[in-house]
Specification:
Layout lengths: L1 H22 L10 H23 L7 H17 L5 H23 L4 H22 L7 E2 L5 E2 L2 E2 L3 H24 L1 H11 L1 H6 L4 H27 L1 E2 L6 H14 L6 H16 L7 H15 L4 H22 L1
Antiparallel strand pairs: 1-4, 2-3
Length: about 325
């Protein structure tokens, strides 16, 4: 009975989220925040991949911005310089980024703990330097990236791009939710608990770790492509190593082992980044560091997960009082 009630409330929350997402772009309801919601959708895609990698598989990664930038630049160069259809360029960018993640995945996951974190951080630094030195336009980036379109319908304004981005975002969330509820999800949790124990029951640990690493890279690549074709301009500074740290903060706030919490984490940090901390300059990273420290100390399971637990307790008490009366 409790499981049925929990499931019912889950569907109610998802339906409310979808309704709220549909209403956001209209001028009569918070229309000025449509661009912010686009950023939240894009960052949610990157964050959910990191949640699968860190929260469910237990593998630390500080290099998600590298795959985010690779997707943006691959897609932008193919579509603008070589006149490849933007949709095809987006898929080719995802395939190339996934192939790159697969190639480096096996050697990089021979490392553990702090060594793995440093290795992925170095990966992000290397990709950032390459984009800055060898990318089109150098530090200034490239402009004139074509918008995505379907037939004669172009996603050439924020209203249209909002629905495009959130279509991909929600698809990513549902796919990830199905993964964690499947046998693959159980295998990932077993790896997180103990790699030796997981191997003892026949789980190919290395293969699963690399597969999730590739999936998280593909998510980040798709998000980068959507960013490039939505903003029509990209620069290396958008994908610097500090962006990887910000993405980790998003994942921690939402809950590393919470797929739907990725939206909460991405929304919280995006609002801070683009609305509340604009005047802080480079000091914004201090704020992110404080938030990360406080959440890890007092709510290690994540702020979203903690709020969900409190809501569940309140709902249970409300139901008990209703039953008593």
């Amino acid at each position: 009975m409790l499981a049925m009630v929990k499931s019912k409330w889950t569907y109610i929350v998802i339906a409310a989220l979808l309704a709220f997402s549909i209403l956001i772009p209209f001028d009569w309801f918070l229309g000025q925040y449509t661009v912010l919601m686009i950023f939240i959708g894009i960052f949610t895609m990157v964050t959910v991949g990191l949640c699968l990698l860190m929260g469910y598989t237990g593998q630390v990664s500080l290099g998600q911005a590298a795959f985010y930038g690779m997707g943006a630049y691959f897609s932008a160069i193919l579509s603008k310089t070589y006149s490849v259809n933007p949709w095809l360029a987006m898929m080719m960018a995802a395939a190339a980024t996934g192939a790159f993640a697969y190639v480096i995945g096996y050697p990089i996951f021979r490392l553990r703990g702090n060594y793995l974190a440093v290795a992925t951080l170095c990966l992000g630094v290397i990709i950032y330097i390459l984009l800055r030195q060898l990318g089109p336009g150098g530090p200034d980036g490239m402009s004139g990236i074509p918008y995505l379109s379907i037939g004669g319908f172009a996603f050439d304004n924020s209203f249209k791009r909002y629905f495009l981005v959130w279509f991909f975002c929600l698809a990513t969330l549902f796919i990830s939710q199905n993964i964690v509820r499947s046998r693959t999800g159980r295998a990932l949790r077993a790896i997180h608990g103990s790699e030796a124990a997981a191997e003892s029951i026949g789980i190919n640990v290395d293969q699963f770790k690399v597969k999730i690493f590739v999936l998280s890279a593909v998510y980040a690549s798709l998000a980068g492509s959507l960013f490039a074709h939505s903003m029509a301009h990209i620069s290396p500074s958008t994908f610097d190593p500090m962006t990887s740290v910000v993405i980790v903060v998003m994942a921690v706030i939402g809950g590393l082992a919470s797929i739907w919490g990725a939206i909460f984490g991405a929304a919280t940090v995006s609002i801070l980044k683009y609305e509340l901390l604009l005047g802080f300059g480079e000091w914004d990273i201090v704020v992110y560091g404080l938030i990360l420290m406080l959440v890890m100390i007092f709510m290690p399971e994540g702020l979203f997960v903690r709020l969900r637990e409190l809501f569940g307790r309140w709902r249970l008490r409300f139901a008990q009082r209703g039953a008593e009366t």
